[in-house]
Specification:
The chain is mainly alpha-helical and about 200 residues long. It is built from nine helices and no strands. The protein has helices at about 1-20, 25-35, 40-45, 50-55, 65-75, 80-95, 100-105, 120-155, 160-190. Helix 4 (about 50-55) runs parallel beside helix 6, helix 7 (about 100-105) packs parallel to helix 8 (about 120-155) and helix 8 (about 120-155) packs antiparallel against helix 9 (about 160-190). The longest helix has about 35 residues, at about 120-155. This is DUF2799 domain-containing protein. Pfam families: DUF2799.
Length: about 200
């Protein structure tokens, strides 16, 4: 009797899923499969030195290899650690350049601390310059958005005292916007001496 009930229960569940077509379930499956660092086919045909090289060029840490172990375990493939590390070391030479360091900082990326000791200093200096420029641009955007909010509040405010306060605040924010724009121009002029910086 218990077996019949269990069978009936699962048949009902299966019928509900098929009727509803469960679009969220399909999305979940796609998302879960997308989390794997490698597909089964990639695991089966992997050249681990090439894989390490591409991961190094992308700036991945060695924890990326752990993800490959997990992804390939289902098909019985074990990554070749030695080949992977050799390839990754070569890939990092392309990632850990001053040009890329500046680009990573300018895009607001985090410093991954993956560069070898001989390349890390120049990469980090350029990264810091790029991050300063990123922060300057973000500050300009934030202040400009604050000004828009104040202007919107001012247009809808009827109380005289509050309007006076908002106008005073608006003047202060406009002065702040001028200051941060000046800081950005100064930073750009300083960075123009660095060969990795391209003015945008």
């Amino acid at each position: 009797m218990r077996l019949v009930k269990r069978s009936y229960f699962f048949s009902v569940i299966n019928r509900v899923i098929q009727q509803a077509k469960m679009p969220w379930l399909a999305v979940a499956v796609v998302m879960l499969s997308g989390c794997a660092s490698m597909t089964e086919q990639e695991c089966l045909t992997a050249n681990w030195e090439d894989k390490g090289n591409s991961d190094g060029r992308a700036g991945y840490g060695l924890t990326r290899l752990d993800s490959h172990y997990k992804a390939c375990a289902n098909v019985g493939v074990t990554p070749n650690m030695q080949q992977y590390k050799q390839g990754r070391e070569q890939g990092l030479k392309h990632y850990c350049t001053p040009e890329n360091g500046f680009l990573q900082g300018q895009q607001g990326q985090a410093y991954r601390q993956v560069c070898p000791t001989d390349l890390a200093p120049t990469f980090l200096r350029a990264f810091t310059d790029g991050k300063q420029l990123y922060d300057a641009k973000q500050r300009i955007t934030d202040v400009a958005n604050d000004i828009k909010e104040i202007e919107h509040s001012l247009s809808n405010e009827s109380d005289k005292a509050q309007r006076r306060y908002l106008r005073q605040k608006l003047r202060g924010m406009n002065r702040e916007l001028q200051r941060v724009r000046h800081d950005r121009r100064y930073l750009e002029s300083r960075l123009e001496r660095a060969r990795y910086y391209q003015h945008q």
